[in-house]
Design goal:
single chain, 198 residues, alpha+beta, four-stranded mixed sheet, 52% helix
Length: 198
């Protein structure tokens, strides 16, 4: 009997150990795993990724200003053309362009037109002149009509009207001071100049 009671005690002890071991396993199985701690490093990389995806726009380059006035070399070329364009002459008491006046104006006006179209702020003035005969008021009006007639022709050639001004000097600025028909003919004219402000 002693032997059997030892077996019982031993069996109870083994059962208790097995039961205790199983119980611990059940408790361990029931405990949920701890939540993962948030990691700061991935958030920074996300922010960096976002910055990479939307870069700060580069400042826009300053717009290039296109000049509307010719440089010194082009102005010299215009002055040469104006010097070559002969004055257009008129008959006594008339403001219509004669064939020789048209020929004088057309000689270099197309080249002048091609230059001026690139410089819309550059302007020319068509001056109207008269001989000494007649009143100052009458000659101022006649000189204006002559300047307007020449401007109309130049606009037909293609020079923009906005780049052509007109002025009449009447008989105030004669090209010749003699009192004969040869001299008076030289004074009945139009003359083209670059605006004084340029």
């Amino acid at each position: 009997m002693k032997y059997s009671s030892r077996l019982i005690v031993l069996a109870v002890a083994v059962a208790a150990m097995i039961g205790a071991g199983c119980a611990k396993k059940k408790v361990a199985a029931q405990v949920p795993p701890p939540p993962a701690a948030p990691v700061a490093a991935p958030q920074q990389s996300t922010t960096q990724t976002a910055r990479t995806e939307t870069p700060t726009p580069a400042p826009a380059p300053a717009p290039q200003q296109t000049t509307r006035m010719p440089n010194a070399q082009t102005r010299a070329r215009i002055d040469t053309l104006l010097a070559r364009i002969e004055d257009a002459y008129f008959d006594y008491d008339k403001h219509t362009l004669r064939p020789d006046a048209i020929k004088a104006l057309e000689a270099d006006s197309t080249e002048l037109r091609d230059i001026l179209k690139d410089y819309p702020d550059y302007k020319l003035t068509v001056e109207g002149h008269c001989d000494e005969r007649g009143s100052a008021e009458y000659n101022m009006a006649l000189g204006q009509e002559r300047a307007d007639a020449a401007k109309s022709y130049l606009v037909q050639v293609g020079i923009p009207s906005a780049q052509l001004g007109t002025v009449s000097y009447g008989k105030e600025k004669p090209a010749c001071d003699e009192h004969d028909e040869a001299c008076w003919q030289k004074n009945r004219r139009i003359h083209i100049v670059a605006d004084a402000q340029h």
